[in-house]
What does this fold into?
Amino acid sequence: QVQVVESGGGLVQPGGSLRLSCAASGLTFSPFVTRWYRQAPGKARELVALIVTSSGGTNYADSVKGRFTISRDNAKNTVNLQMNSLKPEDTAVYYCNVDGGNGRVYWGQGTQVTVSS
It folds into this structure.
């Protein structure tokens, strides 16, 4: 059974940094794209960043561009989201989405990121 697990969330002060990781197990395929989403209270789910497995190409939401970096760690078979210069508006539950194409989409349960002084 496929499992997607996020880790690395926590409480940080504004201007601080966190590194989130997404680990997928039980896959019988190589994902085409891995995406990070976030959802804050009272807000719609927002696409934060994505990485294309084959090319390594990345895309970011305007709100995080220049502050967040998505990457793959092939040795650990994880996708990471390095978050720097965190702002209170970054507070949300962050979800990892593994997209293998052909309708094969899997979600993690999320990890809480809270940015507060």
